[in-house]
Prior knowledge:
292 residues, alpha+beta, Ribosomal Protein S5, domain 2, Alpha-Beta Plaits, seven-stranded mixed beta sheet, four-stranded antiparallel beta sheet, 10 helices, 11 strands, 37% helix, 26% strand
Amino acid sequence: MLTVRAPATSANLGSGFDVFGVALEAPADVIRVERATETTIEVTGAGSQYVPEDPEKNTVGAVAEALDAPAHVRIDKGVRPSSGLGSSAASAAGAALALNALYDRGLSREELVPVAAEGEALVSGTAHSDNVAPALLGGFTVVADGRITRVDAGIGLVACLPELTVSTRDARGVVPAGATMDELVATVGNAATLAIGMAREDPELVGAGMDDPVVTPRRAALVEGYDRVREAALDAGASGVTVSGAGPTLLAVCRRADRRAVAAAMVDGFDDVGVESRAYRTAVGDGASLYR
Ligand code: HSE
């Protein structure tokens, strides 16, 4: 039997829609695999009632099929589905790493990214790599034009998950078909600032580069309390706040020392609009880890 811990991830970071992603130190899924003649899946943990155990409908089943690696798979969900924290990507990436090792397939982590992305496509409808890339490779990742680049970045983060659900399909439905030249210039400038901030491990620069005039304002409207929580986090020391992935989690960047205050402010902000939430005090972390 092999065990993998696969981290939650946060995609987009505002200005890097469908391009940027980070692995989070927490939460994470734990996936255990054993060889079998056919794939069976058991799911427990956060939101497990919403995750199908039928291999035809589960992201892990698609990964097992792609690697020709039938197994009994137990998934303990630490990453709630429909949270904006890469729940299906964590399971897909974790299963890809585990089954690749279980059957000695010899693929590198980079080579496993498209395998896990195909698995994720089964549940989300499109094969984005902006969650599976950081889930496998760790750190801050940039997926652009088929190329994945990454950098380690010890940046403090708070991910605040409200008791709300936003489906990725709905959140993609509000993305506008185009942008103006002013919006394009602002987005490129912010994304470049953010990437340099990650490379320098500078939370101020990362926060400054998160602003996005195109996608985030539309998605923020789907998250009750967004403005209030954002303002509360900034007042408590965050340098930037945005929607994590498709939402409803809101992600704040801050100095590590400010995480406790930022987390409390975000939970209070949701509380002010009558929404319960939990905040993960976390940081940019490693990719999935394999335990034999
Ligand atoms: N980049 C994707 C989005 C991540 O924001 O829609 C969620 O699959």
